Amino acid sequence: MGHRVKCYYCGHTFDRDKEPFVPIEGKRRYAHKLCYDRARSAEQENEENKIQLENYIKELFNYKTLPEPINRQIREYLIDKNYTYKGILKSLKYFYEIKNGDKEKAHGRIGIVPYVYEDAHNYYLALFEAKEKNEQVVVSDYVLPTRVVCIRDPERSPMTGKRKLFSFLDEEENE
Predict the structure, then answer these.
(1) What is the rounded CA–CA span in Å between residue 71 and residue 110?
(2) In angstroms, how far is CA 44 from the centroid of its own chain?
(3) Could you give the count of Cα atoms lying within 13 Å of 138 in the half-sphere of its Cβ?
(4) What is the pLDDT of residues 9-32, one digit of tens each?
(5) Beta-carbon neighbour count of residue 113 at 10 Å?
(6) What is the distance between the alpha carbons of residues 22 and 84, in angstroms, rounded to a whole number?
(7) What's the pLDDT tens digit per position in 27-79?
(8) Is the CB of residue 30 less than 8 Å from the CB of residue 19?
């Protein structure tokens, strides 16, 4: 008789005697080994993104440690708006490095993120799509067509009269 358990991460049931598993949170929870490894790598990547975001903000505003209002803003963006650490970081980079946003107007905060998050997403998505499209192109195989353009020497045309320049005397004569 097998021990049927439910995977903590994917929710599928499996026999822990036949498939590799990892015990989770004590002895009563189990997960597929593959699901567990994926979850751990995702958590590590998320932690790395958090550190990168914090370091970028510290460098941007010359902080030694992040002030609590910025931590509060980050938590709000993560929970209420479902943003990611990486998304917040890319939004800030987009605004301050690509769009040359003014740091002085920010007053040491990251309140610009909700306003530029979608634009930053579209910008980085366009970059990704262009890169994907261009990976398939071999530059050495692409030959630009050459066009020969002949430009005639300009011909000088004689002036057909003198231009009348503005003069204050014209106003005095009319009066």
Answers:
(1) 10
(2) 20
(3) 2
(4) 888 888 878 888 888 877 678 888
(5) 23
(6) 28
(7) 678 888 888 888 888 889 989 999 999 999 999 999 999 999 999 999 999 99
(8) no
3-class SS letters over the chain: CCCEEEECCCCCEEECCCCCEEEECCCCEEEEHHHHHHHHHHHHHHHHHHHHHHHHHHHHHCCCCCCHHHHHHHHHHHHCCCCCHHHHHHHHHHHHHHCCCCCHHHCCCCCCHHHHHHHHHHHHHHHHHHHHHHHCCCHHHCCCCCCCCCCCCCCCCCCCCCCCCCCHHHHHHHC
Tokens 């990547």 correspond to: 45
Q: What are phi and psi of 14, to 5 degrees?
A: -150, 165
Report the DSSP beta bridge partners of residue 23.
Answer: 30
Question: What are residue 32's DSSP bridge partners?
Answer: 21
